[in-house]
Design brief:
alpha+beta, tt1808, chain A, 2 domains, four-stranded mixed beta sheet
């Protein structure tokens, strides 16, 4: 049995399989992430570890803008809390994912123990945003959005800067694709949340 590391380069992923007696446990994976703090790391439900380089400057700026818009709305709304791209969540299917920005209801967060909050929290956010970078394939991000839905997300936005489209995901619905929108609205799941796309494109 092997542990597979997929190292995602700026233009293409590189997959490396390392000998191992079994896939990393949750604790081993946590220690692996702590030992490689400068990298962005996720793990699929099958145990494949995905290692991504730090975000390029332009993507980092746009991720910051996503989180800033979400933070302002979250503070005004008061019913939950937001997270930036450094937060990792262990989904019900066992995958560990780090959306570019996310939000969850306060009661869901409060149901976690302090130990769980201080780890890759075993919870799925209610809302996620993923911003496509040069190294991301659209197909790969679409699969990730479907995974989020299957694990409890009620609203997801896939933002494709290359094609200036926003894919809106909701449970049991065909994704809606917005072509070059000026603003994307979070109603009804996130009442009155609006993302101005001028600083995202």
């Amino acid at each position: 049995m092997t542990t597979t590391l997929r190292i995602q380069h700026e233009t293409m992923p590189l997959t490396v399989s390392l000998p191992a007696s079994k896939p990393m446990s949750r604790e081993e994976f946590y220690d692996f992430c702590l030992a490689n703090r400068d990298l962005r790391i996720e793990r699929t439900a099958t145990g494949e570890v995905i290692v991504m380089p730090p975000a390029l400057a332009d993507i980092g700026n746009r991720n910051f803008n996503l989180a800033a818009y979400l933070w302002v709305w979250s503070e005004q709304d008061g019913t939950g809390l937001g997270f930036d791209s450094s937060a990792g969540f262990t989904l019900p299917n066992g995958a560990m994912r780090s959306p570019d920005a996310s939000w969850m209801k306060q009661e869901k967060w409060d149901a976690l123990s302090e130990e769980e909050k201080a780890s890759f929290a075993p919870v799925c956010p209610d809302f996620v945003m993923e911003l496509r970078s040069k190294s991301d394939t659209l197909k790969g991000l679409q699969a990730k959005m479907e995974e989020y839905l299957e694990n409890g997300v009620s609203l997801g936005w896939l933002i494709d800067r290359r094609n200036k489209t926003v894919h809106i995901y909701r449970p049991n619905q065909t994704p809606q694709i917005l072509e070059n929108p000026d603003v994307v609205n979070g109603d009804p799941e996130l009442p009155n949340f609006q993302l101005s796309m001028a600083k995202i494109w």
